[in-house]
Fold:
Amino acid sequence: MNTTVASWKEASQLRRAFNDLVDGFRAHRVWRRLARMDIRQKYRRSVLGPFWITITMVIWVGAMGPLYSHLLGTSSDEFIPYLAMGIISWGLVSNLIIEGAGTFVGVENLVRSVKLPYTVHVLRMIYRNLLIFAHNLLAFVPFMIYLHIWPQWQWLLALPGVALVLIAAVPSAFLLGTLSARFRDMQQIIASIVQLAFFVTPIFWRPEMLKDRVYLAEYNPFHILLEVIRRPVVSGLPPASTYTKAVVLILILYLAAAPFFAHFRRRLAFWV
Structure:
């Protein structure tokens, strides 16, 4: 009897969580407008707005590209595009993780005062970072001009990669956002992990440099998410194994986040 009641309760919790997800996607006008407001508010009274991040990336790549290509003994013409797309892609992935951890804590007043699906706050964060990523892609243009790189049709294959990253960001935000609402130290821990991942992920260096330990890069989840965006632009279509790993990673995230969020969803308003 108790097992039946517990199963019915779990099924009810999953159904409510699923309804929250559906209602959140239906409220696309809300989270799209809120995301644009976030960007305008963050860069209020700024002349260049979010393009300051783009300029910073150009300076970073312009300074570090020739230096690291010399240190690593590689051609600047090959290394600079690799580094530029790596930093741009890393900006999307890392921001989705770090800001995903603060998804609910960052909007605590809205969570307490307005009855909205929690999915709205997640999609608001994802859409905001997608817009910033679109701005940051302009950082690649100066290097295209300098290195005489012409756009190619294969670059469009980066779009499915961006879609995979965004799909992975949904369960990640639910999982990390809920944990951070309950344990406030989680945001600092996650930020530290992401900062460490920046150095152990092939952004300034290539996986082949690990030689017989190249598997450390190939199974690095950060590297997998970077490659589905960067590789079509830099060196052609990623191997099928890269997409397989990305899909497996996404499935694991959903399998972990779905029951977790369903179980703790009703407590979120009290935790924030």
